[in-house]
Write a structure and sequence with these properties.
With about 130 residues, the protein is mainly beta. The chain is built from one helix and eleven strands. It has one helix at about 30; strands spanning about 5, 10, 20-25, 35-40, 45-50, 60, 70-75, 80-85, 90-100, 115-120, 125-130. The strands form two sheets. Strands 2, 4, 5, 6, 9, 10 and 11 form a seven-stranded mixed β-sheet that branches. A hairpin with a 6-residue loop joins β5 (about 45-50) and β6 (about 60).
Length: about 130
Amino acid sequence: QVQLVESGGGLAQPGGSLRLSCVVPRYTLNYYSIGWFRQAPGKEREEVSCISSSDGTTNYTDSVKGRFTISRDKEKNTVLLQMNSLIPEDTGTYYCGAIFIDLCEKVPPQRPPYPLVRSWGQGTQVTVSS
């Protein structure tokens, strides 16, 4: 099982920014696409962004397009999620997940029971509030 570790959550004001980090084991980014998911209280965990293992191409859910940017650094074994222009609806626990697919666009965004997600991180809390 792939061990993922998130960090970087916290409290931000509306319009502010946060950057989340997901550290993965060495070589993981060669074999797994990595998704960022968020879960608001009482709601299911939704995929907000994905970066492909094969070529680094990216996908975003409509609600974060133009505001969030996913990227990866293979040398540092890290996937980042830069979140700008935050709104209260972005509040939730953010998880990174290792997705067993080479190209994110081959499959729809992962939903329960997340059939292609092989591992999850422990989650990091993001709260957007004034």
